[in-house]
């Protein structure tokens, strides 16, 4: 069901949600969380995307972030946390020499949130900052991962201050008994954010050049698999193995897991030019673990959704940056024992997501 645009549709929609509430009758609302994507703030006049099909509202985006936080703060049940799905400031800040000041403006707004933010790193983070910088910045929310949890002790290479680091930025946390949230790093394999001297950069360049013969590696022109462009990335074997370990633990402990990252991993949930390079590997990994119930991404500003053949919900959240004044694009997800209900705002659809059978 699409989100309502007219007041008539709104009424039907309210009824639909009311019915769902009835079916959730007697069910306790465990917790809620916020979702927001692609703020891409910059102090610059509005302009168009690369294909000149969509306008980008660079200044407005900060106000939309601010008002989303105000709304979350006012909710009867304040969200336990917010998933910020990456690209929080735009790459144009580099040309404007305003990366630090723009990030600070965004973080000042984030600082007003009652809910802690989990920050994903997208391509625009890597246009503005090195991995080392991000690791020591407030955009590194790894300190919010579980400290007590036995599965956290599973060894994995995650962020550190090592300048030649080949590590990835990924972690998980358990906000409520039997529910786990797992952040994945979609730019683990990438030529943005990796040092040219690093093995991961060299391996990534090899993959990209094999798949994309264009002189401009950002161009998908003529490609069979058009996700192989420079502004995307993928998952290393070691990250996939680590995710497998976490999901095995969650299967054994009858948990439900929500996985989130910047890039979508299902072709029916996005324009395929926005998929992670080796999306199919991550997708089949999640499908092989019954604990995986939902994957949430940003990157494709038009948004998208699908329920896959294994019962996993794939949400691609609409981007704040292409949302004009008077509209919005964020959501609050209510988590119950048997389902999650996405309460969308503006262009984000309301959605009821039942869990797959375990
Ligand atoms: N079809 C394309 N051909 C060549 N370059 C492109 C194409 N689409 C995007 N780019 C370039 O790739 C980079 C990332 O694109 P952008 O649209 O800014 O990504 P995002 O959707 O993450 O904001 C930009 O430098 C943009 O100019």
Please explain how this structure is put together.
The chain has 358 residues and is α/β, with parallel strands linked by helices. The chain has nine helices and 14 strands. The strands form three sheets. A six-stranded mixed beta sheet has the order 5-4-1-12-13-14. Helix 2 (60-74) runs parallel beside helix 4 and helix 8 (237-252) runs parallel beside helix 9. The longest helix has 17 residues, at 7-23. Bound molecules: adenosine-5'-diphosphate (ADP). Adenosine-5'-diphosphate (ADP) is lined by residues 49-50, 87, 123-124, 216, 218-220, 231, 299.
- The H-and-E topology, N to C, reads as HEEEHEHHEHHEEHHEHEEEEEE
Q: What percentage of residues falls in helices of 4 or more residues?
A: 25-40%
Low-pLDDT windows of residues: 1-12
- Report the average pLDDT across residues: 92
Please report the total strand number as a whole number. Answer: 14
Beta-strand level of the residues, as a percent range?
A: 15-25%
User: Going across the major beta sheet, what is the strand order?
Assistant: 5-4-1-12-13-14
Distinct helical segment count = 9
Blueprint of the fold:
Layout: H1 7-23, E1 31-36, E2 47-48, E3 55-56, H2 60-74, E4 81-84, H3 92-95, H4 99-110, E5 116-119, H5 123-128, H6 131-136, E6 171-176, E7 179-183, H7 199-211, H8 237-252, E8 256-260, H9 279-287, E9 292-297, E10 304-307, E11 313-316, E12 329-335, E13 339-346, E14 351-354
Parallel strand pairs: 1-4, 4-5, 7-8, 8-9, 9-11
Antiparallel strand pairs: 1-12, 2-3, 6-7, 10-11, 12-13, 13-14
Bound molecules: adenosine-5'-diphosphate (ADP).
Adenosine-5'-diphosphate binds next to helix 5.
